[in-house]
Amino acid sequence: MDSHPPAANEPDTLASLQLLLSQIDSASRAQEVANKANGLSGEETQILVDALSASLDKDNAFTRSQAHVCLALVKIASATNFVSRCRTIKSENLTPSTSDDESLGIFTITGQMPCQVKVVRQSQDKSSAVSGSPEDAVYAAQYPQGCSEELIRWAHLTHPNILPLYATFSEHNNLGFVSPRLPEISIRGHAQRLPKERRLLLILDVTDSLAYLHRLNIVHGRLTPEAVLLSSEGRALLAGPKATSEAEASNSLPVRYSAPEVLEDENIRPTKAVDIWSFACFSYEVLSGKVPFFQLSKDSRITLAITREDKPLRPGLEGVDGDEIIDEIWRLLLLCWEYEVGDRADCSRVQEMLTNLSVQDDRPMPQSPLSSDALDGCTIATERIKTVVNKVLGFEPPSTLQIPEHLHSTLFTLVDDADKRSARAAAANKLSPGETQVLVDILDLVVANSIHLPTARLLFDTMGSTHTIPHSHKINRVQYDPDVPIAEGRYVKAYKGRGLNVRVNVVTSSLAAARIPKWCSYWANSSHPNVLPFYGMFHEISNEAPRICVISPLLENGSLNKYAPTLPQKSRFPLVSDIVNGFAYLHNTWDVSPGGLDGETVLISNVGRVIIASLGSDYLFTEGRSPGSYLSYYWRFNRSPPSYQNNKKIDVWSLGCVCYEVLTRKVPYYQYPDDHEVVTRNSKAELPKRPDRSDDDIDEIDDRAWDLITKCCAQNPDDQASLSQIQEMLADFGLEDNRPTAKPLVGPEVLALRSRPEIDFDQAESALGKIQAIKLIQNRTKDVAETVAELESSDIRPVVDFLDQRYELKGVKYRPKPIAEGGFGNVHQGVDPSMCVKVMKRLDPDALTPWIKELILWAHSSHPNVLPFYGVFVQGAKGSPQTCLVSPFMKNGNLRDYAPRLSQKSRLPLVSYCLSFMNPNVIRLP
Questions:
Q1: I want to staple 698 with a disulfide (CB 3.0 to 4.6 A). Which of 282, 525, 691, 715 is the partner?
Q2: How many domains does the chain have?
Q3: What's the gap between Cα 528 and its chain centre?
Q4: What is the dihedral of CA 606, 60, 66, 260, to 10 degrees?
Q5: How far is residue 184's CA from residue 130's CA, in Å, rounded to a whole number?
Q6: Cα–Cα distance for residue pair 579/651, rounded to 1 Å
Q7: pLDDT tens per residue across span 615-648
Q8: Average pLDDT in the 238-263 region?
């Protein structure tokens, strides 16, 4: 439970807003937005504050940007005295209850759910005196115009386990803050009246609220039982530091709740790690009924115990007073009480560990203490909100950055000829990860500013060899419903994005995961109305499994092979013209052969125009066919005669076959079975069959269209028409095109999601200089092999050099029961069933060096038929760590066990996919 859900009609608007604001992705960006807000009108400032506040509401997938959005909100609101209208009580709803109540500062909030409020004015010494008042009353502390950032921040928090704080303005426009007053029930006293297992629910409540604060980069700083109140539903509510009683108004933590670093330095500011320590102390007291270090009465002795790394006594065991704490919770508390700050569990880990405990929660659902009619609220047209937000965001596309002229010269020197490009791409593998990132960013910037083919090819090679993606290709995570896929194919599962009309393609194939990012060097910089636009990509971890997610337009008309048959033949000819124009752009602009076409990877826009998925994006749209059936379909379009050696000519052949399918509603060579020689090889250069009236369920082709197809599929490559000639032929057709005008598929909202690279040109110049000086390496695998061959048994330096931070994984979990056991280690399936974890045994010194060599070679292998290496993590005690290797889980096992299930004919493709020297016991099948 993170927060109250938005109204039923709000999710798309809210998600769209969250997407837009997710580009506030750093503290400097938050300050930039706050500075720009100074130029807004009062109305615009209010709209901006409302928008920023709404984006912090429930189910915001952009957790990495939430803290920065919150920072921008606090800076703007505290500087302007504006508070979100959804967090402000209408002044006319505050009325005195009786004359006596008015003198005590008690008012009633009128509305559908009336409740009383208690107004507490700020005194001279800035302390607040709170007197008793009935349940459902509300405190209010009034402050001058320059309200503290702390209260502004707390007033915009929305979470079911946080005591809400609302703003209210007096008739003189003085800003005050009100929060529901709850019964004065001690949380520790209430916990002692509960069964032991029910006390865990209160701990979970506080964990959820603290995790919410920490995600927003907010430190509570005073987490004690006095800061936790109890709702009418029996749920724990964490109160802000200013909402506690006068007795708790001190800014310092009680010694019993203080982390060692706080006791050692009285000037230290509270941190998230301090909150974690205090949380463990709170949990100890709630679960056991005893305060931490209850056996010590003096603060000086408690301080001494904490600073010498003593822990509170474990209650309920060996004669120690207090209720017993179960093993799982005690281990968690010890993780929170680690002496070194860096060794303590963070809040997300605490939340995960507690959530895994099975505790039934049958408490009533939390209810908002105030009805919506008591609040100002805000209903503004979405476009108006976006206009104001865009005004302060001022998105600047990467291509507007200017590269220094001398760097241009250096780059062009590097890419003068193909031999140099290949050598430089290989040399890039010797750079540090940071230098490699700067290198691909500046190469991408050159291509984005002005297409320069040699630079694009160097970028292609460098991205392929280093697996590094330019920052401008990355997009903030787009939220989607993982339980409702809209398509599933050989390489991806696709989902509809929330808030934007986009398709989220979650890559499930290691082959596609390796090839798509590399081809993005071309795809991301392409711009043509008949070529699928690149929206961006992001990495996500689902059950600790890293996956690439590629964002593309959501095209409701689907693929060409399904759409074209719904039109009369006359209306299909403009589709053919679109295909030719898109293919001509790919050939002429990029001078690459992107691979042949088929009717499945040619898409249709929402206005009926062709959008070609190519340059790596074709992997996203090969739908749910088995590998064999899809290849049989693909071969019908891409099995040109053996005499065709030029890739571009092969592309034109496939173009002719796609035209055939569009105009006839039949696949090429439809009269032959999938395994026929004409389909699989076409050694005799047979043309597709021209339909006639005797053929059923197929459309005839007139002479002009047949001439176009035969010129694409000429039996002699020398007789094949060029794309420009094909365009001229179509122009002579005099096609009638009544389709709506094509609209750009990439709007400002999508562009706003893309990362803005901040390139350090000095570092870029240094990286370029290094790859000029590094020894040119033609084959990186050979280079690695030569290095590891020189390893001595005690030499681990190459592991550091070659297994960099890219391969270090965190948070990977696996099932305890092994699925296979071997001499070097046991194999487990991950908690995420798509992952496999090999837990290595301690190796003898003689076996260690060969194992390290093999590991380095494996990590740097890149081939569709070699098991991918995901990474490595270490578990166990510091003195005797265990190495764990992570790779994909192959549900079909090894080749030896899998092959006998197939017919002999079906085994042949498996053999062709595998290198002849590989042991069939270690060949894994997806």
A1: 691
A2: 5
A3: 28
A4: -150
A5: 12
A6: 12
A7: 888 888 887 555 555 566 776 777 777 777 667 8
A8: 72
Rg (CA), the chain: 33
Higher-confidence position of 632 and 577: 577
* Residue 696: Cβ within 10 Å count: 6
Question: Residue 66 contacts by C-beta under 8 Å, 6 or more apart in sequence?
Answer: 55, 56, 60, 215, 216
Mean pLDDT of 39-44: 89
Residue 29, pLDDT score? 82
Q: Which whole number is the average pLDDT over 664-691?
A: 83
**Long-range pairs, 909-915, Cβ under 8 A, ≥24:** 909/628, 913/865, 914/865, 915/865
Tokens standing for 353?
A: 């560990």
349's tokens: 């880990």
Helix (H, G, I), strand (E, B) or coil at 426: helix
Residues of the chain by 3-state class (helix, strand, coil), percent to 5: 45, 15, 40
The verdict on residue 834 lying in a domain is: yes
b (16+ CB within 10 A) / e for 134-152: eebbbbbbbbeeebeeebb
Q: What mean pLDDT do residues 34-43 have?
A: 89
Whole-number Å distance between alpha carbons of 440 and 461: 10
Is position 469 within any domain?
yes
Of 66, 48, 71, nearest to 385 by C-alpha is 48
The neighbouring-strand residues paired with 493 are 488, 506
Longest dimension (CA), the chain: 103
Judged by average pLDDT, the poorest of 208-212, 431-435, 663-667 is 431-435
Q: Same domain for 178 and 197?
A: no
Task: Judge if 516 and 450 occupy the same domain.
Answer: no
Q: Give dist(CA 490, CA 492) in Å, integer.
A: 6
Chosen domain end from 337, 355, 373: 355
- Under the banding of pLDDT at 50, 70 and 90, the label for residue 506 is very high
Q: Are residues 468 and 502 in the same domain?
A: no
> How do strand 115-121 and strand 138-143 relate by DSSP bridges?
parallel
Which of the two residues, 111 and 236, has the higher pLDDT score? 236
Give residue-wise pLDDT tens across range 308-338. Answer: 999 999 998 888 899 999 999 999 999 999 9
Tokens of 873: 């993590």
**Which CATH number is 826's domain given?**
3.30.200.20
CATH number of the domain within which 341 lies: 1.10.510.10
In the numeric block, which tokens belong to residue 252?
């310092």
Burial of 119 (0-12, 13-18, 19+ CB in 10 A): buried
In a domain, 586, yes or no: yes
- What is the reported pLDDT for 583? 87
Does residue 212 sit in the same domain as residue 149?
no
Q: Are residues 573 and 438 in the same domain?
A: no
Q: Tell me: do 23 and 113 sit in the same domain.
A: yes
Count CB neighbours of 666 within 10 A. 19
Whether residue 109 contacts residue 93, with contact meaning beta carbons closer than 8 Å, is answered with yes
CA-CA distance, 549 to 552, in Å (whole number)? 10
Beta strand pairing call for 825-829 and 820-821: antiparallel
- Integer Cα distance of 721 and 655 in angstroms: 11
Q: Are residues 884 and 849 in the same domain?
A: yes
Q: Is the pLDDT of residue 758 over 80?
A: no
532/619 same-domain check = yes
Spatial separation of the C-alpha atoms in residues 597 and 595, rounded to whole Å: 7
Domain hosting 560: range is 480-732
Give the chain's mean pLDDT.
78
d(CA 680, CA 676): 6
Question: What is the DSSP code string of 55-113?
Answer: HTSTT-S-HHHHHHHHHHHHHHHHHHT---GGGEE-GGGEEESSHHHHHTTEEEE-SSS
Domain boundary among 454, 473, 492: 473
pTM: 0.54
Which residues touch 848 (CB under 8 Å, ≥6 apart)? 793
Unique residue bearing structure tokens 């803290």: 67
- Asked whether residue 381 is assigned to any structural domain, the reply reads no
The kind and range of the H/E element at 502 are: strand 502-507
| The token pair that represents 493 in the structure block | 């599962």
| pLDDT confidence of residue 15 | 60
